[in-house]
Fold each of these.
Amino acid sequence: MKAPALRSILIVDDDPAIQKVLSIGLGRLGYHIHVAQNGKEALNYLESGDYDPDCILLDIRMPVMTGREALPKIREIKPITPVIMLTAFNDLATGLDAMKNGAFDYLVKPSRLEHISETIEKALKYRDVVAEKAEQDRKNEAYRLSLEKKMQSKAIELNDTYMKLKAANMQTVRALAETIEAKDQYTQGHCERVRKLAVKIATALKLPAEKIEPLEIAALLHDIGKIGIPERILNKQGALDPDEVDIIKMHPIIGAQILSTVEFFLPAINGVRHHHERWDGNGYPDGVAGEDIDQLARIITLADTFDAMAMSRPYRKALPLDGVLREIQEESGKQFDPEVVQVFFSEKLYSDYVDAGSRQAQ
Ligand SMILES: [Fe+2]
């Protein structure tokens, strides 16, 4: 808090006698005094920014700009600086009116110096309280902003770490998927294409965002269980005997078991376990039907089957696209979830697959 002796008072009055009396009297009491001839000059002072009085004595009747006109503008420039109006004896109503408009108090001219000084001191105390409060508010706001900024950068950092972790996890999943493809010579690039198509189907079905990651994992790893199937069965030329078929049919269960060992994979487990289930209940390994089949699996089943039929494999050429599409349509409600088939056709999700010679997905 400033010492009273350093307080600065701006006297705004056009009457040289008043200027003199107040300047000398208040100067003796230890105030720094500045004088302005009218409201306009006072505003110029305040707007210059070089001068910041602690209190303003403002006459009401002045040429150029009256105290009444100047008051709201002063309040705007210096909202916490108290303004004491100087009113003529016969103009008390204007003084009271000025108080309604934000003046701190009013003095009737002529006033005794002692009374003027008391009023100024009250105004200065009031100003100190308001200034302290404003300063505290400013500090609180600055603290709040810096805290908010810190939290924001922390959140960005966390999100960044999460995204990196997620990318690293997905890389691991891709590496695993490639391991399966290396083992099964018929499935080069198949898992990645199934993932892409499955995500398109899920997007068309408006699946919630949190289901997309498990879907991608399940799509990439749907055949991970083939790791547990002997290569001589997987790569056998010609028909498999019934025992071999039973062994092949184990791969969704083996896959689900592998995924169950890693927490990150848990939401994807049934997407893998159910990918050979059929909507009509005639699939394997559990023979579940309809919506009892995991929704991720219902999407993957169509993507997997479509890709297997539409793409060339070493032992056979791809089927013509129109034939594949007819087959998919016919299997709606039998092998496939009708809703999945419906968006597959309505959104033309097969359009990345070109129907030419030994075709490749684009
Ligand atoms: Fe499979």
Amino acid sequence: MMRTYLLGRALWLCLFAAAGFVCFDAAPATAQEEEKPYSITDGKVDWYTYSGYRRYHGECHVCHGPDGLGSSFGPSLVNSLKTLSYDEYLEVVVNGRQNVSQASHRAMPAFGMNPNVMCFVDDIYAYLKARSDGALGRGRPEHGPKPDEARERDNACLGF
Ligand code: HEC
């Protein structure tokens, strides 16, 4: 009897904790509430955002269009990042996505093993976020100098 009671109580607490977690998880910070991952001073973007521009146009624009505007091969990421959170963005880039419900065979490749993408995944996010927020126009942005820490980060990540 006692045992059942304790078990019942423990279970209840468990469910309560789980429900609390689910509630918390069901309402993650919206894309708008996240701190801005880019900065623009005197019309110049920070180095990381510029790096994102370059990497985006190296790896993503063939499908997602120039300047993130979309193409017949992939959706506009300028639009997508108005609603996708950073975590959702990261998940798709790492794992890819195959939209099985659509007749088209277009798919988002998985880039999780590609250092040319993964080393710069935050830079690409910063660039696309700036575009998505309307803070940055089309084309190659003016940018600040490359900080030493960015050089060290790139070399460490790419294994130079
Ligand atoms: C070979 C074409 C192709 C390339 C290259 C590509 N993507 Fe995609 N991507 C797609 C397609 C197609 C979708 C839509 C998948 C779906 O929803 O079924 C997509 C979806 C996405 C989404 C989700 C968009 C949303 O609204 O849910 C993100 C984020 C994304 N791609 C980021 C990137 C990034 C960053 C790169 C470059 C590192 C990249 N993609 C390169 C084809 C591509």
